[in-house]
From TrEMBL:
InterPro entries: Cadherin, Cadherin-like_dom, Cadherin-like_sf, Cadherin_CS, Cadherin_Y-type_LIR, Catenin-bd_sf. CDD domains: Cadherin_repeat (cd11304). SMART domains: CA. GO terms for cellular component: adherens junction; catenin complex. Cadherins are calcium-dependent cell adhesion proteins. Residues 4-84, 85-193, 194-308, 309-413, 413-527 form the Cadherin domain. It is found in: Cell membrane. The keyword Transmembrane helix applies. GO terms for biological process: adherens junction organization; calcium-dependent cell-cell adhesion via plasma membrane cell adhesion molecules; cell migration; cell morphogenesis; cell-cell adhesion mediated by cadherin; cell-cell junction assembly; homophilic cell adhesion via plasma membrane adhesion molecules; synaptic membrane adhesion. This is CAD10 protein. SUPFAM superfamilies: Cadherin-like.
Amino acid sequence: QLHSDQDKGDGSLKYILSGDGAGTLFIIDEKTGDIHATRRIDREEKAFYTLRAQAINRRTLRPVEPESEFVIKIHDINDNEPTFPEEIYTASVPEMSVVGTSVVQVTATDADDPSYGNSARIIYSILQGQPYFSVEPETGIIRTALPNMNRENREQYQVVIQAKDMGGQMGGLSGTTTVNITLTDVNDNPPRFPQSTVHLRIPESSPVGTAIGSIKATDADTGKNAEVEYRIIDGDGTDMFDIVTQRDTQEGIITVRKPLDYETRRLYTLKVEAENIHVDPRFYYLGPFKDTTIVKISVEDVDEAPVFSRSSYLFEVHEDIELGTIIGTVMARDPDSASSPIRFSLDRHTDLDRIFNIHSGNGSIYTSKTLDREISQWHNLSVIAAEINNPKDTTRVPVYVRILDVNDNAPQFAVFYDTFVCENARAGQLIQTISAVDKDDPLGGQKFFFSLAAVNPNFTVQDNEDNTARILTRRNGFSRHEISTYLLPVVISDNDYPIQSSTGTLTIRVCACDSRGNMQSCNAEALLLPAGLSTGALIAILLCIIILLVIVVLFAALKRQRKKEPLILSKEDIRDNIVSYNDEGGGEEDTQAFDIGTLRNPAAIEDKKLRRDIIPETLFVPRRTPSAPDNTDVRDFINQRLKEHDTDPSAPPYDSLATYAYEGNDSIAESLSSLESGTTEGDQNYDYLREWGPRFNKLAEMYGGGESDKDTS
């Protein structure tokens, strides 16, 4: 309550309030000055409020006293229970932990004022989880309460922790939380085999590395604490079998280490041990952390394939041996107790040329063709062995045949040599260095000797004794105008037994050289050319000649195409046209048109005279016939020539009639030609042409029109 000394109680003063919460949380009675709270006040929201109060004249609104400030402090009461930040906690602790091992700490908070009474003093207790765990009242640390808690017996625990204020006294407020505790695994259990003896079976034909079976030791632990290593520690098959640990399944896989043989041994006994890899020293007293079992392996009998005495064979033979020579023998046997006979054969895919063969009974390999080391130095064969009683059961073995060298090839020039000698060469001048190659490969290496086949006055050879030789001149000066090329035979021999030699011929050209010995020209024809004619001029002349030849060929082709044009140029239909030759012969008096003497003397005919009525595309050589006697009738001669032409297969079937200047009997149909109209004084009537049909209308119009013109004139 606020009160001013100026207040007479007559209501002339008015109290006003300002500051934190004024008008909302706190209000003042303007007449009496009493301050009231409008709602419940929570200290946890705000612990104190600062307010200002003043008394003023109600009528003038002027302050009668200075403004005064005061603080309202909220006293705390226990109205908040302790709370945990997590509703559920998760924790873990290793199994077999000692009593008092810390698991996790939980902490609760209280919103009440810790400096005022015991409202915020919290005490922890365990409501659920005893007798396995306990909690420290002041700190909230959860600890193990029982020794040797085993994960294999129980793994999960749920603990309920209570936090209570007022120091845990009656009337205090409380809150709870749940803690899920898991026991983690430790290696406190050794591996154990479920059986003391394990029986396995394996066929004797199983290859090395074959898995026979698996064994597994169980371990109650998990993760790396359950990892086991398997090993064979004893038994009569320690060298015949292996065991491999498979990590993902923790099984021991027993495999074949060496080939098995039923006829040699049928039963093996192994002692297998399984041991933990990660052992905790704290639990040695629970050991040993390993276990053993007995594995008995029975070998089953199968029909086995033949077995060769070796895994591979190597035979060496000289290339000059005779056909049918045995180069080696392979041996195989039947490992079964029946011991069936063996048949041998060659895989022809490894001997496509059939150079070798094999005796099927004893396995002897012999040659069927000649050998040549220079063609193939190695032959890789595959020999097949099969039981006669069971041909499908086969075995293969590789056979390597090495062909040894024999000196059967002569040395030759290493390359082709393009050798030349300068015209101004001097005696003893080097013009070429030669070398040789030999297909043979002697043990001591290649050694060649060079010499001339005969004494040569122009050149000589000098052996360098390093498988090369030098070609030297023996005289001064050479002339390509006299001799442009020299042939020099060189004898090359080797140093092996028997000695082989060959003769190689060097072609030496004579060339013009400059002062340094560089070749300029080797053609003798170049001497005949004018001195002033350069290479560019020669090329220009050659191009001109080629252009002239092309022009001549084009001109000939155009002329030939022009000659092939038809004699009759039809404007409409050839059936409705009359061909006009615009040429009239001179008759029998015209001796220039045809020489009748040729018919009487066929020998005088010209070979190249062509037929005048057509344009032939191919020229045929006329056949010569015996000359007819002078007193032979012309008719017989013409008939004879006609018969020859009819029977001549080379004569083309021209659609024309050859005229031989012989006039036969009159035609029954008479002639339609108007060639004789010039000798006839009277005019002819061509009206009958109109009666011959539409094909002769054109002809009728032409001749009918002519008469009309004449009459008109």
